[in-house]
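$ ./design --mode recover --in tokens.txt
reading tokens...
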């Protein structure tokens, strides 16, 4: 069976609050564990009115406390925003409290705009140091050596698994060079998916991971009818368009047709970016997931879905889990 995992941005629904979003995350995490999800990852974003997962390590700790066996982590921490030592201490603390359950995915983008990146006190120049920061972070999680000047306490000796996240060839090349698992953000930036997967697999050098481990992200919107599933999908379509226009807000309520609230050019742009998606009834999603897996041969699938109604979101992720189990059988 191909492992299947879940990516959560703790969406703040239109008409709801950040507190609602965080409670929904904990509820979804508990159920995701029962449904067989391997990992539950939380993504770092800042200054986004529709996303409540900005304090990623804090929220990961809450999810770890609310679950028993599922791996939990960041998908990811935007490393240009943080000194590696702080990240090592935060995730080292989590790994000390919850051994062998913590993952750390690292991204090179700031996960926000330039003004907010400046407010984080790191700035966009941090991206230039990303490869060295990753190497430094790996070292901080290893057992310290005698006389080592800088140590992560807690953190040293925990060997928290590090993943490289990316949507371009840069991340694929770095993950291959360092021998790390690689997760591709195909759920919103799929253009380099095939080339990145091929580059990663062919240039992989055994390191912390003995063989390549490639994970692709897929949007999933499942419902009893195709019409309802497509209606659920209009929330992230609208949200993505608002972000591109520079007017981010809470996750919009769904509409009957996205094309009714977007121009033809806008619809094409959004649908192109979000095309790695499975949407429809259970049978339809199963067929679409089969096609995606057959085409890209991932070692793991990361499922995500920004759905406005929490009950509908639960149903969609439960349906997706059933499908992945059936495909494995």
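writing sequence...
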């Amino acid at each position: 069976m191909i492992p299947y995992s879940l990516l959560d941005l703790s969406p703040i629904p239109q008409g709801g609050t950040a507190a609602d979003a965080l409670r929904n995350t904990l509820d979804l995490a508990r159920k995701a564990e029962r449904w067989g999800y391997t990992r539950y990852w939380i993504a770092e974003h800042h200054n986004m009115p529709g996303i409540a997962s900005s304090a990623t390590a804090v929220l990961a700790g809450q999810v770890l406390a609310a679950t028993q066996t599922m791996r939990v982590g960041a998908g990811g921490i935007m490393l240009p925003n943080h000194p590696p030592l702080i990240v090592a201490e935060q995730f080292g603390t989590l790994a000390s409290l919850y051994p062998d359950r913590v993952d750390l995915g690292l991204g090179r983008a700031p996960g926000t705009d330039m003004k907010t990146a400046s407010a984080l006190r790191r700035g966009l120049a941090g991206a230039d140091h990303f490869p060295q920061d990753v190497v430094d972070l790996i070292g901080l999680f290893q057992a310290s050596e005698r006389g080592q000047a800088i140590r992560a306490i807690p953190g040293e000796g925990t060997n928290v698994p590090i993943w490289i996240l990316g949507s371009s060839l840069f991340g694929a090349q770095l993950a291959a060079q360092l021998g790390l698992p690689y997760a591709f953000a195909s759920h919103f930036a799929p253009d380099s998916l095939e080339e990145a997967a091929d580059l990663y697999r062919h240039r992989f050098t055994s390191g912390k991971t003995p063989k390549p481990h490639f994970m692709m992200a897929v949007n999933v919107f499942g419902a009893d009818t195709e019409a309802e599933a497509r209606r659920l999908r209009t929330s992230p379509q609208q949200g993505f368009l608002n972000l591109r226009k520079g007017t981010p807000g809470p996750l919009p309520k769904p509409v009957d047709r996205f094309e009714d609230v977007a121009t033809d050019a806008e619809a094409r742009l959004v649908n192109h970016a979000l095309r790695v998606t499975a949407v429809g009834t259970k049978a339809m999603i199963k067929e679409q997931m089969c096609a995606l897996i057959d085409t890209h041969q991932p070692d793991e699938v990361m499922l995500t879905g920004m759905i406005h109604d929490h009950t509908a979101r639960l149903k969609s992720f439960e349906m997706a889990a059933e499908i992945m189990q059936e495909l494995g059988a």
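exit 0
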